[in-house]
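Example for tutorial group B:
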C-alpha cells in the first residue's frame, strides 16, 4: 500500500512468531496445492507486523480470506524473502503456519503479498533487491510450497514501478514460477496491486503489464488501489472507483484482445481504504460508498474486493488523522468487512442491512441538566430501509428521547438525555437499538452523571436482546430484578407477580 510507515521498524521488532513445535511444512514441492480461491473473493489486507493473530482477526471480522502484507528482503541486495524484512519471521511454518491452518479450517485462505510501499521505496522489494531471476523465482516458489497457497500478490508502487530492470526481472521470474507450477500440477495465480488515478492506471502501471505480456507472464488479477489520489480534487470515492476500474478495463482490453468482456472484468480487483485515507478528509470512503461499490462489483463480476487494512475497520478514532489502527470515521467494528463479506463465492447481491452508531459514544452531565448525542445509521448492505429507534438501560432520575424515532438507513437522530437532582451519580450504559427488516442493530452510549443525590443501581441494566438465566440480576427503572428462569426480551415489571422477573426493590 501507499501508506508511509515511519514506525514500521519498531512494530516489526514486536512481532512474535507463531509457536509451532513439531509443525511440518504446509505443502510439498511436488504436491498439489490447496483449493484455488473462489472466482469472486473478499480478501482484505492484514498488517502482519503488528503481532496480532490473523486467524483471530479473521474469525472476529468474518473476513475468511486475508491478503497477508508484506514479504520483502532485509537489506537491498539480498535474495532472501522474509516477512516484513525481519530475520525473526522467516518464510517457514513457524511464521503464521498455525494461523493459516486455522483460517483454512474455517473455510478461508491467505494471499501472501510481496512488496508494499516501504519495500518499494527502500530497494527491498525482492525483484528490486535481487538481480538473479532464478533466485527470485525460487523465493516465490518457497512461499507457495511452505504455505501451500494458490495466489501470490505483487504490491508494486512508487520507486519499484520506475525500475524497468526490476519490472522485467519480476515478470521473468513469474513466468518461471508459472511453468514450474504447471509441471508440478499446482494452481498458482498472480495478482498485481498497482496505484491508480480516477481514470485508470498511470503510464508506469501500464508499462508493467505490457512487460508481463511480452515475457509471457500471466496476470490473473490487476488490483487497483482506489484511494490516496493526492490530486486536490473533489471526490465521490465510490464513483471514482467505478471510473478507475473502467479505465483499467479499457486498457486490459487492448492488452488481451482475445478475452471476452466477462473475462476482462474477471481480471480486475479493487482495494479501498475505509474512512479517511492518507490524503485527508477530502478523500473519505464511507459505508454508503462501500455498499455502492459492492453492488457495482457484483454487477460487473470483478474478481477481488479488498481494503487496506483489516486493523482499520473500526471507529476507535473518529475525527483523527488517518492511521493504521482505525478508520477515522464513526462506525462499528467490522462494519466494512460485513459489507464486503458476501462477495466471496457467488458474489450475490446482499440482503438489506444497516448499522447504528452513537457519536460521541460517551457523555457527562451534572444531575439536573441534560446532554445530547447524534445517533447515525448507515446502509451496510443492499438498499436503505426504515429503521425504528429505541433506547434502553435508562436509570431512575433520567429520561431519554430520540428525535426522530424512525429514520431511513443513512439518516440520523438526536438522542437527548435529561436528568433530575434525584439521579444517582455514576456511569450508566445506555443502548440505542435500531430495528429494521434485517433485524436489530445497536450502539452503546455511556452516560456519566455527576452531583446526583440518588443511589446508583449496581446490577447491569436490562437490555431486550440479552439472554438471561435463572438467578441473574439486572437493574431497570430504579429497581433490581432477578430472573427466575431463562428469558430474553421480557421487560421487568411487565409480566406480573408470577412472571419471570422478581422485584428485589428499589436501588
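The residue assignment follows.
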Amino acid at each position: 500500500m501507499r501508506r508511509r510507515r515511519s514506525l514500521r521498524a519498531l512494530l516489526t521488532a514486536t512481532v512474535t512468531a507463531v509457536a509451532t513445535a513439531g509443525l511440518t511444512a504446509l505443502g510439498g514441492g511436488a504436491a498439489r496445492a490447496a483449493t484455488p480461491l473462489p472466482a469472486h473473493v473478499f480478501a482484505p489486507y492484514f498488517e502482519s507486523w503488528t503481532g496480532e493473530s490473523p486467524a483471530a482477526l479473521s474469525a472476529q471480522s468474518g473476513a475468511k480470506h486475508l491478503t497477508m502484507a508484506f514479504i520483502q528482503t532485509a537489506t537491498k541486495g539480498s535474495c532472501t524473502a522474509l516477512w516484513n524484512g525481519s530475520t525473526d519471521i522467516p518464510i517457514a511454518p513457524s511464521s503464521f503456519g498455525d494461523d493459516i491452518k486455522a483460517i483454512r479450517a474455517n473455510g478461508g485462505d491467505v494471499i501472501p503479498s510481496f512488496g508494499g510501499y516501504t519495500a518499494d521505496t527502500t530497494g527491498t522489494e525482492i525483484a528490486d533487491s535481487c538481480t538473479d531471476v532464478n533466485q527470485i523465482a525460487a523465493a516465490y516458489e518457497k512461499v507457495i510450497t511452505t504455505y501451500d497457497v494458490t495466489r501470490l500478490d505483487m504490491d508494486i508502487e512508487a520507486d519499484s514501478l520506475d525500475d524497468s530492470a526490476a519490472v522485467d526481472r519480476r515478470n521473468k521470474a513469474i513466468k518461471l514460477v508459472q511453468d514450474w507450477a504447471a509441471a508440478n500440477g499446482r494452481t498458482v495465480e498472480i495478482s498485481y496491486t498497482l496505484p491508480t488515478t480516477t481514470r485508470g492506471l498511470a503510464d508506469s502501471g501500464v508499462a508493467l503489464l505490457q512487460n508481463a505480456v511480452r515475457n509471457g507472464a500471466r496476470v490473473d488479477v490487476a488490483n487497483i488501489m482506489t484511494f490516496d489520489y493526492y490530486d486536490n480534487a473533489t471526490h465521490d470515492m465510490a464513483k471514482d472507483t467505478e471510473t478507475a476500474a473502467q479505465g483499467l478495463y479499457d486498457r486490459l482490453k487492448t492488452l488481451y484482445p482475445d478475452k471476452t468482456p466477462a473475462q476482462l472484468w474477471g481480471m480486475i480487483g479493487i482495494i479501498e481504504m475505509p474512512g479517511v485515507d492518507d490524503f485527508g478528509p477530502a478523500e473519505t470512503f464511507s459505508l454508503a460508498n462501500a455498499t455502492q461499490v459492492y453492488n457495482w462489483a457484483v454487477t460487473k463480476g470483478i474478481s477481488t474486493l479488498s481494503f487496506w487494512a483489516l486493523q482499520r475497520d473500526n471507529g476507535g478514532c473518529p475525527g483523527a488523522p488517518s492511521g493504521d489502527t482505525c478508520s477515522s470515521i464513526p462506525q462499528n467494528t467490522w462494519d466494512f468487512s460485513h459489507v464486503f463479506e458476501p462477495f466471496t463465492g457467488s458474489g450475490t447481491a446482499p440482503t438489506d442491512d444497516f448499522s447504528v452508531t452513537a457519536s460521541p459514544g460517551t457523555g457527562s452531565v451534572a444531575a439536573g441538566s441534560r446532554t445530547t448525542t447524534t445517533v447515525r445509521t448507515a446502509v451496510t448492505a443492499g438498499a436503505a430501509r426504515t429503521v425504528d429507534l429505541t433506547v434502553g438501560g435508562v436509570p431512575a432520575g433520567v429520561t431519554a428521547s430520540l428525535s426522530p424515532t424512525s429514520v431511513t438507513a443513512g439518516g440520523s437522530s438526536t438522542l437527548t438525555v435529561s436528568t433530575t437532582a434525584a439521579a444517582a451519580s455514576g456511569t450508566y450504559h445506555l443502548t440505542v437499538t435500531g430495528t429494521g427488516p434485517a433485524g436489530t442493530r445497536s450502539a452503546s452510549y455511556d452516560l456519566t452523571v455527576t452531583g446526583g443525590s440518588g443511589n446508583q443501581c449496581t446490577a447491569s441494566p436490562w437490555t431486550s436482546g440479552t439472554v438471561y438465566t435463572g438467578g441473574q440480576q439486572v437493574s431497570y427503572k430504579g429497581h433490581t430484578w432477578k430472573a427466575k428462569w431463562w428469558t430474553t426480551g421480557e421487560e421487568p415489571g411487565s409480566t406480573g407477580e408470577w412472571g419471570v422477573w422478581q422485584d428485589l426493590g428499589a436501588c
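The longest helix spans residues 164-183. Compare this with the pattern of hydrophobic and polar residues in the output above.
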